[in-house]
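User: Design a sequence. Structure:
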């Protein structure tokens, strides 16, 4: 793998082109990591890009299931001056990092003897990585524990590349939609129980995204209100009568 570094993505690309004696039209470029800043604006870790001749045996990660509009950012889109706009840098980083993230999830799954492939859908700041496997039960885990663990790690992986505004969701065979229906059902059951008993109902610990769905389902209810309490993985949703819930 021909990896080149620089203080900026543009500089890393230029270093690769100069070293390999290539023009932009002769190269395949993949942004691996953007630069990371340390104290006082100093570069803590340089940007990393992969530069290969266009006629080399180059295969973008995961292209077997990528749609055509998710292909690598064309090198022709780069300005001849070597300077890149923030939008161009971000587009290249998103294209490469989304695939790197999916590969990272694939490696995590392999450690648990789960073999999978994937398809990536990018919608602005939301990435949905649809996972395909012959062991869906093991991938999901008890109450979604395994797929949620992978999802948390995938988001951490993206944040380390300084893309804090990106939210990654892992899905398989419409699991998230099915799970949402279950959450809506248990939210209604909780409402009925709270109204009947006038006591609070405490859910089992659940991920932040699922807690947010419960709150969304109940936000307009005039008889109950919901809030979260606890820390980390033990954080839970509490549903209580409005008269018993402190703001």
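Assistant: Done.
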């Amino acid at each position: 793998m021909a990896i080149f570094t620089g203080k900026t993505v543009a500089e890393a690309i230029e270093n690769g082109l100069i070293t390999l004696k290539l023009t932009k039209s002769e190269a395949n470029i993949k942004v691996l990591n953007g630069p990371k800043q340390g104290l006082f604006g100093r570069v803590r870790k340089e940007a990393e890009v992969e530069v290969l001749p266009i006629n080399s045996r180059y295969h973008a990660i995961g292209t077997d299931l990528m749609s055509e509009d998710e292909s690598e950012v064309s090198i022709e889109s780069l300005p001849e001056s070597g300077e890149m706009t923030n939008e161009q840098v971000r587009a290249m980083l998103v294209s490469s990092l989304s695939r790197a993230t999916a590969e990272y999830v694939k490696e995590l799954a392999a450690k648990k003897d789960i073999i999978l492939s994937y398809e990536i859908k990018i919608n602005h700041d939301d990435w949905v990585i649809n996972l395909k496997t012959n062991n869906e039960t093991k991938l999901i885990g008890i109450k979604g524990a395994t797929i949620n663990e992978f999802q948390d790690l995938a988001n951490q992986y993206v944040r380390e590349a300084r893309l804090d505004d990106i939210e990654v969701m892992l899905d398989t065979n419409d699991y998230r939609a099915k799970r949402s229906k279950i959450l809506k059902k248990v939210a209604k059951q909780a409402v009925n129980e709270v109204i009947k008993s006038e006591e609070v109902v405490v859910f089992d610990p659940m991920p932040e995204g699922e807690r947010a769905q419960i709150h969304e389902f109940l936000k307009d209810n005039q008889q109950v209100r919901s809030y979260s309490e606890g820390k980390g993985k033990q954080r839970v949703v509490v549903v209580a009568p409005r008269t018993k819930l402190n703001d």
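Residues 56-76 have pLDDT under 50 and may be disordered. The first strand starts at residue 3 and ends at 6.
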